[in-house]
Structures are given as structure tokens and as C-alpha cells.
């Protein structure tokens, strides 16, 4: 289930777990005032060795240093 971020004028921001087929919340569960759904960036975690921007540079530096040691 996705997590949606909402903002209440009185209580501030809060997260709510909802199915994608459910309607957005209209009122705050705490104070029953009007809420707005906030569109934000998702939390993404990249795992593994292929996601580093400078990975190619590190690999090239390692192979260069190995070649220097052999010479």
C-alpha cells in the first residue's frame, strides 16, 4: 500500500497508508478540519554496485594502479 502525505492547517503534515483505489482524505483524523494531499518525491534507495555515478572512475583507477604495480 502506498503512503500518502497530507497537510492539515492546524495539525501540520501527516502520512496515511491507503489503497490506490481509495478516495483521498478530506478531513484530518485528529481535528476534523480540511486537509490537502501533498505531492512529493518518493523515497528511493538504490542498492548494488551499479548505481554509483563514479563507479567507472573507481574501476579505472584500480586497474591503472594494478598495472603500475606490475610494471
UniProtKB/TrEMBL annotation:
One family name in Pfam for this protein: Zn_ribbon_8
Record-annotated Putative regulatory protein FmdB zinc ribbon domain positions: 1-40
The protein, known as: Regulatory protein, FmdB family
Record organism: Halanaerobium praevalens (strain ATCC 33744 / DSM 2228 / GSL)
Amino acid at each position: 500500500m502506498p503512503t500518502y502525505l497530507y497537510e492539515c492547517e492546524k495539525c501540520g503534515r501527516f502520512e496515511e497508508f491507503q489503497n490506490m483505489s481509495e478516495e483521498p482524505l478530506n478531513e484530518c483524523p485528529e481535528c476534523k478540519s480540511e486537509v490537502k494531499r501533498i505531492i512529493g518525491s518518493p523515497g528511493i534507495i538504490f542498492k548494488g554496485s551499479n548505481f554509483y555515478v563514479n563507479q567507472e572512475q573507481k574501476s579505472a583507477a584500480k586497474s591503472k594502479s594494478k598495472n603500475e604495480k606490475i610494471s
